[in-house]
Amino acid sequence: MTQAIAADNTSRNLLVIAAGGLLSGILTPLTPQLIDKFTGGSGNLRMALVAVPFALLVFFVVRRCSANPWWAALVAGIVTMVAFVCAVNAAIFIDAQTYGAAKVMRNVLAGLAGGFVGAGLMALGIALLPAGPRDAAVWMRMVLTGTLAGALMTVDSALDLDLTSVLYPVWQAAVAVRLAMVLQRGKLA
After folding, report:
1. Residue 3 — very low, low, confident or very high, per pLDDT cuts 50/70/90?
2. Which of 14, 39, 52, 57 has its CA 20 to 30 A from that of 184?
3. pTM recorded for the entire structure
4. Rounded distance between C-alpha atoms, residue 67 and residue 69, angstroms
5. SS3 label, residue 116
6. Cα(156)–Cα(67) distance, integer angstroms
């Protein structure tokens, strides 16, 4: 009976985290409008600020789903912002390297690269936290999910989306749920 209640509670928590990911993904493409109102700062700093909605979600996921102290959840949020900058730069780099290929192919490759770099750096950074699982195999699902969801960049490009996105809500919800699953597994171990 206790296991059934715990499983129901875990499912509810994952749904709340997925909803938070959808919300942060909706806010992410809107934040540059707010950031542009402020002057100063490098391009990478401004890009990192775009990741604040998702970084806040990661902060709460790490805080709630793991035995990490509060400062580790803060570090996880900062790692998320760094991973976002690196993911965007990786996508731009791959897009430039595939110049001359069909636009759809360039977007798929750039999205896969950005998704891999973003999820991979998050996994690496959060795994190094005090209560982060050290087993690389448990992080692979999160990295694979982030990589595959990165391909949704093609949909954003095909629909010519600017202030809305398909990529961010899906990617952030999926990666946040996978992160919670990894951390909960580590908490039980």
Report:
1. very low
2. 52
3. 0.90
4. 7
5. helix
6. 37
